[in-house]
Amino acid sequence: MITLRDVLQQADRNKAAVGHFNVSDLVTLRAVAEAARELGAPVIVGVSESEREFMGVSQVAALVRSIRDEYGQPIFLNADHTHSLAKALEAAHAGFDSVVFDRSTIPFDKNIAETKQAVAELKAINPSFIVEGEIGDIGSGSEIHDAAPDSSRVLSTPEEARQFVDATSVDILAPAVGNMHGMLRSMTRGESHKRLDIERIAELKAAAGIFLTLHGGSGTDAGDLKKAIAAGINIVHINTELRIAWRHGIESALAAQPDEVAPYKILPAALEGVKGVVRERLRLFAARMAG
Ligand SMILES: [Zn+2]
Q1: pLDDT of residue 151
Q2: DSSP 288
Q3: How far is the CA of 261 from the centre of ligand 1 (A)?
Q4: Which terminal CB of the chain, N or C, has fewer other CB atoms within 10 Å?
Q5: What is the mean pLDDT of the chain?
Q6: What confidence category does residue 290 fall into, taking pLDDT thresholds of 50, 70 and 90?
């Protein structure tokens, strides 16, 4: 079976990106797996600390493994935004493929020291386990925000990227390049979009020399996303867009069937809504830039 590292190398060569979609229930997990399967695309399922606390760490690992085994599908599991070594180790022991070890909110030198230690301990458990480190502050919460955090305007520098990667030996770097977590209300209505600094992404890619992840991809200008992938982004995270589709699906199902109580008759609308978003995003991530 193909590994996450193989998939990332393939994406890097093809100037395509792998979609990373967060889940916190079986409906969203099924939507992600089915959309990827139908398109023949590899996919990463992400669960943050709160999302995996809700689903159960070993339970979500078992679910993803069972899909991989049953369908022979390249579906991988990432411990998204993990803020402590203990939780990262728990995920590695549970059979996750990767972790986002996120100490981006502490001072840069401490982030380097803690990430370096995490890489060493995690690789000791499983040498093929993939570790992503994070520099720069892109806010938190895959939710609907009233205003963007001030910090979201500060971009990671090539010097920081080089220093961080050299010192920590992470496999993947998550920089701040104009992206942010969550969506503004105007973005949920399609009235505004996040814009990315494409030139900075290319500079960071050259300086870091490793895989790059774009966090907070929801609500990003589609043209910018394509250019960012061509410039070196290998993974794009989408969460808020799925949550919005999930909620809309449930609301419409409840409105259409006011007396229905069977979950399996209410939830398919949410499943189809989420699946539609995943499908659309995966198509965009796989599309190569013209020329
Ligand atoms: Zn993120």
Answers
A1: 63
A2: P
A3: 34
A4: C
A5: 95
A6: very low
Rounded Cα gap, residues 192 and 12, in angstroms: 29
Q: How far is the CA of 280 from the centre of ligand 1 (A)?
A: 20
Model pLDDT, residue 149: 74
pTM above 0.85, yes or no: yes
| Of the candidates 55, 9, 25, the residue with the CA atom closest to the CA atom of residue 274 | 25
DSSP SS3 for 262: coil
Ion ligand 1 neighbours, Cβ < 5 Å: 215
Q: Which residues are catalytic?
A: 80
- How many of the other CB atoms lie within 10 Å of CB of 283? 13
Label residue 154 left, alpha or beta by phi (over 0 means left) and psi (-120 to 50 means alpha): beta
* Structure-block tokens of residue 116: 């370096």
Tell me the C-alpha distance between 125 and 235, whole Å.
24
Write the DSSP assignment of 38-62 as a string of letters: HHT--EEEEE-HHHHHHH-HHHHHH
Task: Say which DSSP state 289 is in.
Answer: P
Ligand 1 centroid to 80 CA: how many Å? 7
**CA atoms of 167 and 165, how far apart (whole Å):** 6
Going from the Cα of 194 to the center of ligand 1, the distance in angstroms, rounded, reads: 15
Q: Is 124 helix (H, G, I), strand (E, B) or coil?
A: helix
DSSP string, 181-249: SSEEHHHHTTS--B---HHHHHHHHHHH-SEEEE---TTB-HHHHHHHHHTTEEEEEE-HHHHHHHHHH
